[in-house]
Amino acid sequence: MRIGVLTAGGDCPGLNAVIRSVVHRALTGYGDEVIGFEDGFKGLLDGYFRPLDLNAVSGILARGGTILGSARLERARLREAAENCAELQRRYGIDVLIPIGGEGTLTAARMLSDAGMPVVGVPKTIDNDISATDRTFGFDTAVMVATEAIDRLKTTAESHQRVMVVEVMGRHAGWIALESGMAGGAHGICLPERPFQVDDLVKMVEERFARGKKFAVVCVAEGAHPAEGSMEYRKGEIDQYGHERFQGIGTRLAKELEKRLGKEARPVILGHVQRGGTPTAYDRVLATRFGWHAVEAAHRGDFGRMTALRGTSITMAPLADATTRLKTVPEDRMLEAESVF
Ligand code: F6P
């Protein structure tokens, strides 16, 4: 069998672990050939690829990013790929394509699959917002980075009697904010799923100062919005990939809290630090298991589906289940952390 693999969309710790695992299982388990397309679907469309053997993936397990490069692709070019998928499959002689990516990539994978390409998807995203899998690799690493940041910010906040507003990633789903906020003991957590009241945050900080705790940390997801009338904040425009251009909620909220509280507040935008660097052991294991199961699925002819974690087992889920609805933070998870909302 000849397998094509690519990584697309925003990168994420653990991508290299999947690539390595696919190559190991395919080569040593089945005697397959693997080629890697560069820069996601661009490589597939424009003919940039290279063979992947055991040496090519040696030493990459713990490395962040992706050795294949990654890119987002405009809808029009994805349609081009779907329309030409039979020709593309012939051109590279591949029996299956394994795209590793988030919601956008899996939607593209579904388009190719619907057009007749044999596809086995592997879900990834630090945001953990893909339905049909309990977890995506990269999330654990991002939560660890954000938690460490909160821990560190607490000590400097306390020294200076300040409010720190930590902005973490999460466009539509607040999983990173929720879990790093809980793990780091943030005093306020703001998620995209529930508009927040600035008054509640002001009250929380005032109460803390009144009982002698003269600092506070608020963890806010980049996609969180204040409740209507709670603070002046306009939603950003939509870019060419269908993403809202964020207006910097962390910075805006810190300014607003400083104004209302009359105390110093500082924004800290963690940004791509959450996506870079070495994956945690958890993410390396999950990514490795996904890679192994993707090759097994390819050999079973289990196309149009993606690897998924259910409980502690890896199963296969239809690409359609992963791409029709985002997995956002449910009400019961918010309730568990309600005292800090
Ligand atoms: O989808 C993952 C993600 O990390 C989002 O949380 C974030 O909004 C986005 O990617 C940023 O991506 P980029 O700056 O690479 O376009």
TrEMBL record:
One of its GO terms (cellular component) is 6-phosphofructokinase complex. Transmembrane segments: none annotated. It is an enzyme of class 2 (transferase). Keywords: ATP-binding, Cytoplasm, Glycolysis, Kinase, Magnesium, Metal-binding, Nucleotide-binding, Transferase. GO terms for molecular function: 6-phosphofructokinase activity; AMP binding; ATP binding; diphosphate-fructose-6-phosphate 1-phosphotransferase activity; fructose-6-phosphate binding; identical protein binding; metal ion binding; monosaccharide binding. One of its GO terms (biological process) is fructose 1,6-bisphosphate metabolic process. InterPro entries: ATP_PFK (IPR022953), ATP_PFK_prok-type (IPR012003), Phosphofructokinase_CS (IPR015912), Phosphofructokinase_dom (IPR000023), Phosphofructokinase_III (IPR012829), PKF_sf (IPR035966). This is ATP-dependent 6-phosphofructokinase. It comes from Streptomyces rubrolavendulae.
